[in-house]
Specification:
The protein is built from 17 helices and 20 strands. By secondary structure, the protein is an alpha+beta fold. It folds into two domains: about 220 residues, 3-Layer(aba) Sandwich (D-Maltodextrin-Binding Protein, domain 2), CATH 3.40.190.10; about 220 residues, Dipeptide-binding Protein, Domain 3 (Dipeptide-binding Protein, domain 3).
Length: about 525
């Protein structure tokens, strides 16, 4: 999710602070990638001004950057998420009530200090702390009791119960140095980074660029391929496309390319790939505000949306309408019993059954190009069934700062992609839905018996004894999420990455925001 907030509670975070080295707003000294083979210039279509706390953030820019700066105990292939060595070797046995991780020999932080088991315990203590209630806590608190240091280079996970997705979750937790961030988590949120990965960040310029240089202390499996990387933050689509265009492109790779520009970039000699993933535009309702406390109203507004028109007009064919909370490319996908196929007559009937007439809605939204194109079609559908709709697009950070402040909104449209954390269905569901969630519990105010039923069903699916049982139980989860329609996708969009093929090879386009260049090779 590319968003931001001013509290410490959840997925969003502080803007960059004065403690971070800020460059002049004119950008990095040189942005012509064609002149320096030792520098990779990338364009990222998301802001770099949100939280940089690895335990808190869901910022697309920050999370993509973290793969270069920090390491989890066990890393994952960027596409399949199959586990591989990170700061520790992949354990032989993860089926029991304890899991042991042995740290890599000679691993050091970029300041030269050794990575120790105490750093791992420090990181997980924060993740599991109910008072901190960080973003990652929802992924661990149900199954992980505590992490203990057995010696300087060995940690033991003590589980509440065996968990089928244990290694998938370990991939989400970037280990941070205790000697840098103990008592100083505000520094992390504000932009300070110091990790054990192949790069270190030397410069942060809010909404302009982030600069990386090779970390000479790194001794892992994916050493830096470049002496320097400059990632430019360009949220607006036109200048982002321009930066990867032309005979002498300013950048070698760019993500979040609008579908309308695919053919243009291909004709210019760029390699362009569109990948389907969990990236979606969703609607989120304030369930404490009438009439949105009635699920029939929430369902009606989904039935009134012509999703195929959104796919063709807004997404230029690069996506699909949602028929489940999960995207159809995921292995765990199952169609929900309520699939919200376009049916304006049913929408009217549901509103009538709920006793709702002359409804007026202000639809708040983020201002990314994807959401902006989508909400116009949503408005058409709602207007057509007699719901007077006013659009209110805003800067992402501004919108979520208002929600953090308790704004009494009606409906919000935004884009998100829990798949940036991983592929397992329970993780993707808990990103938005859990008793501790900033999203379902705080923003949508979804609490009470219906919420409790859903969370209990999610536990049944997560801790099912067999894969077949897990699939059966998760179908019930997907049906309940669709039936409640509290926070639910409208469309799933392909994410488009473009790069200069005579400068880069080995790029894997991904179905979640950002880029991964650790396996890329320069030409």
């Amino acid at each position: 999710m590319n968003n931001s907030m001013v509290t410490r509670r959840g997925a969003i975070g502080f803007a960059l602070t004065a403690s971070v080295l800020i460059a002049a707003c004119g950008g990095p000294a040189s942005s012509d990638s064609s002149s320096d083979s030792g520098t990779l210039t990338a364009v990222i279509g998301y802001g770099n001004n949100q939280s940089w706390d690895p335990t808190q953030t869901a910022s697309a820019f920050s999370m993509a950057a973290f793969t270069n700066v920090y390491e989890p105990l066990v890393a994952g292939d960027p596409i399949t998420r199959e586990p591989e060595a990170g700061l520790a070797a992949v354990p032989d046995d993860v089926s029991g009530r304890t899991i042991t991780f042995k740290l890599r020999d000679g691993a050091k932080w970029s300041d030269g200090q050794p990575v120790t088991a105490d750093d791992v315990v420090f990181t997980y203590d924060r993740i599991l702390d109910p008072q901190e209630n960080v973003q990652l806590r929802a992924f661990f608190s149900g199954w992980l009791d505590k992490v203990v240091a057995k010696d300087d280079s060995t940690v033991e996970f003590q589980l509440k119960q065996p968990f089928q997705y244990a290694l998938d979750r370990v991939e989400t937790a970037m280990i941070v140095p205790k000697h840098v961030f103990d008592g100083k988590w505000d520094d992390a949120a504000g932009g300070k980074t110091l990790g054990s990965g192949p790069y270190k960040i030397t410069e942060q310029a809010a909404l302009d660029h982030t600069t990386f240089v090779k970390n000479d202390q790194y001794n892992g499996d994916h050493p830096a391929q470049y002496d320097k990387m400059v990632w430019r933050s360009i949220v607006d689509a036109a200048p982002r496309v321009a930066a990867i265009s032309g005979a002498r492109p300013q950048a070698q790779i760019a993500d979040n390319i609008p579908p309308a520009n695919i053919d243009q970039l291909k004709k210019a000699g760029r390699q362009v790939e569109a990948v389907q993933g969990q990236n979606n535009v969703f609607l989120m309702f304030n369930t404490r505000k009438k009439p949105f406390d009635d699920k029939r109203v929430r369902q009606a507004l989904h039935y009134a949306i012509d999703k195929e028109k959104i796919v063709q007009v807004a997404l230029k064919g690069q996506g699909v309408g949602a028929t489940s909370y999960l995207n159809p490319e995921l292995e765990a996908y199952q169609k929900a019993s309520t699939d919200f196929s376009y049916d304006p007559d049913k929408a009217k009937q549901l509103l009538q059954a709920a006793g709702v007439s002359n409804l007026s809605i202000t639809l708040g939204s983020t201002n990314t190009s994807l959401v902006a194109d989508t909400i116009n079609v949503i408005k058409e559908g709602w207007d057509a069934i007699g719901v007077k709709t006013t659009l209110n697009p805003q800067d992402t950070k501004a919108l979520f700062s208002k929600l953090d402040g308790g704004e009494d909104y009606q409906v919000v449209a935004a884009s998100g992609n829990p798949q940036q954390f991983g592929n397992d269905p329970d993780l993707i569901e808990r990103f938005y839905y859990s008793p501790q969630s900033l999203w379902s519990a705080t923003y949508a105010k979804f609490t009470g018996p219906d919420a409790d039923l859903l969370y209990n069903q999610m536990d049944k699916a997560a801790y099912a004894p067999t894969a077949a049982d897990a699939k059966t139980e998760n179908k019930r989860v997907l049906d309940q999420i669709a039936d409640q329609a509290v926070l639910y996708p409208v469309v799933f969009t392909k994410l488009v990455t473009a790069w200069v093929p005579d400068r880069l090879t080995g790029i894997q386009a991904q179905g979640y925001p950002g880029i991964n260049v650790l396996r890329a090779q320069k030409k």
